[in-house]
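Data availability (excerpt). The following record was deposited with the supplementary files.
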Amino acid sequence: MVVGNGLNDQQMFHDAELAIGVVGPEGAVISTLVAADIVVSSIENALTLLLSPTRLVTTLRE
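Predicted structure:
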């Protein structure tokens, strides 16, 4: 599981089982967001998903 938003995160996103992209005030690299399984608006939202397994499962449900 990885969380990130930058160019340096791209390889990590491709290798991870779960990649969470964060679009914060500073923005994010488009190709990193494309590689993400989930995109959230803040690091706090990403951490909340991890602390609430039910929300995470609901978010990933197809």
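Summary of structural features: The mean pLDDT is 91.
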